[in-house]
Amino acid sequence: MRDLYIKNTLTRKKELFKPLNAPLVGMYVCGPTVYGDAHLGHARPGIVFDVMRRYLSYSGYKVRFVRNITDVGHLVGDGDQGEDKIQKKAKLEKLEPMEVVQHYTLRYHQNMDALNCLPPSIEPCASGHITEQIQMIEKILQAGYAYEVNGSVYFDVPKYNTHHHYGKLSGRKIEDLLEQTRSLEGGDEKRHPTDFALWKKAAKEHLMHWPSPWSEGFPGWHLECSVMSTKYLGEHFDIHGGGMDLLFPHHECEIAQSVGASGKEPVKYWVHNNMITINGQKMGKSLGNFITLDELFEGNHKLLEQAYSPMTIRFFILGAHYSSTLDFSNEALLAAQKGFERLVNGYSVLQNLKASENSSVEIKPILDKCFAALDDDFNTPICIAELFGLVKIIQNASRNNAQLSLADLKLLKHNFDVILFEILGLELPKDSKDKSASNQDDLMQLIIELRKNAKENKDYATSDLIRDKLSELSIQLKDSRDGTTWEKT
RNA sequence: GGUCACGUGGCCGAGUGGUUAGGCAGUGGUCUGCAACACCAUCUACGGCGGUUCGAAUCCGUCCGUGACCUCCA
User: Which 42-81 residues of chain A approach strand B with CB closer than 7 Å?
Assistant: First the structure.
């Protein structure tokens, strides 16, 4: 196994990846709250953690990838007056809360599938782990890091902070937090502004509630991730991922809860993806400046000049390092689309390449660079840049401006496949994949033959007619020295 | 206000103490009956000002600008 380095948010350093129980790797990623369609921002963690997971698998690890579905408990608005997001949506649409959950979970799955993100090994939902959440609260209470008030249970942050460092992940100090935290509204049950709810007593009109030792209520915002990661990956596991916006308070609270309950540090490597921006500003639900994935796939949004395929989106996202912000624009997306086409083009040319006696170029060093890039904190943009270098060689070889030995050609074919499909998870456009499966190709060969005859007879009217009509049918003819090929556009 | 990032050529986006990132767009060529595709060549660069150094876009300081988190957010 090669050495893989991962930037750990906890230490702010790139660290050599050493799994706790090699070859097993436990990976937990925060999934969506299912109360609305997934947008471009959701695609990013979906894709970048998919590539991490794929690369770890490729590298020989046996990965258990857990990604939750949040279907309960996130409050809207400020303080206690807030409403459960899913409940709010349910009331709005006159649905059962679980209907909302089911609907958006399905749509999320469809989107992730379109983006060719592999499904998680386990996809637990919060509502299915109420018992476990109650058990964890009991543990935290026993440890003395929580207190009950009027049927609700809160995590005692100042007390926790006397034994541990609350704020170490996000680089905060509790004293600073105290100064900056918004002042509490009157009647708050919390003893300290930084305390957070583990269990909330449900108001009468609250639709989603469960029995507990403290009250009929529902679990707090951050608890599900601690509970479900512990249940499926253990009290101490390898990788926890999520968006940077979850760093504080969500992930900070997760650490506090887990340490509070078990005394053990839950996560070895914390990994955070950066945000997608639009006009330099974060794309987010609360800002209302988001574009849903369906809108992108269909080109159905006022900011979009055209539709962009899921693979264009995937390629676009992999073109930037996960830790950098990535700015959305039609121009950038179009560049990604064209770039991806170039890569696909290179791939299909590669399939028909003939081997020479010797190689005039070196393949292995470039492939090594691809893997070295991925080993360096999953640097997909550099990996892709090297791939373009290979495309140049492939194109040159097809024009006899470069030669590849049989061994090199085999090496290139195999690894181009591995990197493009297995690791980066890109897919060829459906049409070109199905091309050989039908008799379409035979028909096309006939048409190409007829056009060739016309050209030889200098009957350019006929040859251009064929070309133009095919073009209208979204079929592009590609003339080269060795004859004509075709592809769907 | 606190904490933390970032500022790269027309656009997107890597990288980093001395060597071409890459893609898209542009320009010139090759190919073509004309094109498209493809290929070759080529042009725009590291926010301002200081400092360290033989040498900085890369390190340090400072100023300016932008953003994120501090409230649910991927």
Answer: 42, 44-45, 70, 74-76, 78
**Is the minimum distance from the CB of A11 to strand B below 7 Å?**
no
Nearest nucleotide to A247 (CA to C1') is: B69
3-class DSSP state for residue A180?
helix
Cα(A160)–Cα(A198) distance, integer angstroms? 14
Q: Which nucleotide is closest to the Cα of A248 by its C1'?
A: B69
Residue A306: other Cβ atoms inside 10 A: 10
Hey, CA dihedral for A125, A130, A134, A139, is it positive or negative? negative
Which nucleotide does the CA of A329 lie closest to, via C1'?
Answer: B12
Task: Find out if CATH 1.10.730 is the number for domain A278-428.
Answer: yes
Residue A249: cis peptide before it, omega within 30 degrees of 0: yes
pLDDT score of A269:
96
Which bases of chain B are contacted by protein, using any atom under 7 A from a CB?
Answer: 1-5, 10-15, 21-25, 31-40, 66-74
Provide the pLDDT for residue A187: 52
Residue spans per domain, chain A:
5-273, 278-428, 434-488
Closest nt to residue A320, judged CA to C1' = B13
Strand B contacts in A 85-104 (CB under 7 A): 85
Tell me the CA–C1' distance in angstroms for A461 and B51.
Answer: 72
Residue A279, pLDDT score: 79
Closest CA to A323 of A244, A423, A419: A244
Q: H or E stretch including A62? A: strand A62-67
* Residue A457 CB burial class (10 angstroms; 0-12, 13-18, ≥19): exposed
Question: A5-273 has which CATH code?
Answer: 3.40.50.620
**Across A90-94, A177-181, A226-230, A478-482, which has the greatest mean pLDDT?**
A226-230
Q: Which of residues 102-131 of A touch strand B (CB under 7 A)?
A: none
Query: What percent of chain A is predicted at pLDDT more than 70?
Result: 94
Distance in Å, residue A384 CA to nucleotide B20 C1':
16
**Beta partners for residue A267, in sequence order:** A237
In this prediction, residue A246 carries a pLDDT of 94
| Residue A232 pLDDT exceeds 50 | yes
Q: What is the mean pLDDT of residues A446-454?
A: 88
- Range A127-144 average pLDDT: 96
CB burial of A415-442 (b: ≥16 within 10 Å; e: otherwise) equals bbeebbeebbbbbebeeeeebeeeeeee
CA of A336 to C1' of B51 (A): 41
Please give the pLDDT value at position A113: 97
ipTM of the complex: 0.94
Give CA–CA dist A66/A90, Å, rounded. Answer: 27
pLDDT at position A115 is: 97
A455 beta carbon < 7 A from strand B?
A: yes
